[in-house]
Amino acid sequence: MRSTSIVLALTFVVGCGPGYKWVAHAEPNPFVRPGCRAVVEPLHTDRLLVGSLPEQAYVAQKAADSADSYDNDKRVSDAAFHQRIFDDHPSLFAPGTPDNTFVIRPIWTHWEPGFYAFIAAQPGVADLLVEVHAPNGQLLDSIAVETKASDYSSGGRMKVALRSAGKVVSNYIEDNWMCARQ
Fold first, then answer.
1. Domain 19-180 has CATH 3.30.160
2. Burial bucket for residue 173 (CB in 10 Å: 0-12, 13-18, 19+)
3. What are the φ and ψ backbone dihedral angles of 54, each rounded to 5 degrees?
């Protein structure tokens, strides 16, 4: 009984991390001046790999209606990513002063679409690199994010995975941006 409790406790602790890994971290913390603001750029996908293929090659092998569906899924998922961050930190996106406005640059590097079949399923996996730049353009922080999502549809998996990535970015802000705690 005791070993079961320990396993359950460890499972709970392992699953409760922030959801991101540091790639670069500015010291001292630049996010301390009250009233900071942020701009979140659209997802950068120019180097996106889908499975093992560059996105352009992946889309090129699809039928026209399937390629259109994929593009629509990407737009909806990008919106879900941004909305999640905006919902958690609305004051961060109010107009502010240029010298205290940071740029959040999400770079979507890999998408594993996963699949759903009646007898087996594999979640979709989204990998992102999220950079935060100072008002002068200097790179301050960079985090790696990986999220997984299961759903019946490939578009559903993408949307849930990117909404979850938005939550991870929101957690990063909550953990590190003292200036956003208003």
1. yes
2. buried
3. -60, 145
